[in-house]
Amino acid sequence: QSALTQPPSASGSPGQSVTISCTGSSSDVGANNYVSWYQQYPGKAPKLVIYEVTKRPSGVPDRFSGSKSGNTASLTVSGLQAEDEADYYCATYGGRTVFGGGTKLTVL
Amino acid sequence: EVQLVESGGGLVQPGGSLRLSCVDSGFTFHNNWMAWVRQAPGKGLEWVANINPDGSAKNHVDSVRGRFTISRDNAKNSLFLQMNSLRVEDTAIYYCAPDRGYNRFDPWGQGTLVTVSS
User: Fold this and answer.
1) Closest to A99 (Cβ–Cβ): which among B35, B47, B100?
2) Cα distance from A36 to chain B (closest Cα, Å)?
3) Is B75 left (phi over 0), alpha (psi -120 to 50) or beta?
């Protein structure tokens, strides 16, 4: 089972919105509503920011939102802040957990 | 609050073995599925294995099946990963996390580094 496809990089200025895509297939992303997103700072462990496509864990700012259309899921970070600069990984379930390759978000 | 601490990583030669441990300081370890996820240097995340609350059901990714075994000791709030026949490509940081279902791993431990090299 191949990894999900994410753009290697994304960027935006403070206050702007940035959307990161995650493309899979009809057997994983398109098959269910179990897409998650993880934020990872350099040298740190990943942190869950979105699960089941749109849900935010307690403590995650509402600037983070998720969506899905067909075989592509998206993470949108609104009102971009310097602290949002990190790597972001999507994950989905198609018999087993599959992660995307990761997107480095840069705040300009 | 769940706090996870991994240990057991280190430098090992190809073909060697290591046993990773993960201790959960919270109170709900015995109720949770648990998972190991790894990250090769400079690379993305890869799910490795998971185990159900009583240890009777285990799943491993194809690339480690037959070489790695996940297990747990609920009396000690501990999760393990026995890694045998290690390969250079197993070099990674190994993280443990509660597997709350369908890719919901939360929270994560700080990770332990495994380096397979001659």
Assistant:
1) B47
2) 6
3) alpha
Closest residue in B to A93 (Cα–Cα): B102
pLDDT at residue B113 greater than cutoff 90: yes
| Span B44-86, pLDDT tens digits | 999 999 999 999 999 999 999 999 999 999 999 999 999 999 9
- The β-bridge relationship of strands B18-24 and B4-7 is antiparallel
Q: CB of B20 within 8 A of CB of B94?
A: yes
Mean pLDDT score, A6-34: 95
**Rounded to the nearest 5 degrees, what angle is found at the Cα of B98, between the Cα atoms of A74 and A69?**
15
Looking at CA atoms only, how far is residue B76 from chain A in angstroms?
23
Is the CB of A49 inside 8 Å of chain B's CB atoms?
no
pLDDT of residue A1: 53
Burial classification of residue B64, based on how many CB atoms lie within 10 Å of its CB (0-12 exposed, 13-18 middle, 19 or more buried)? buried
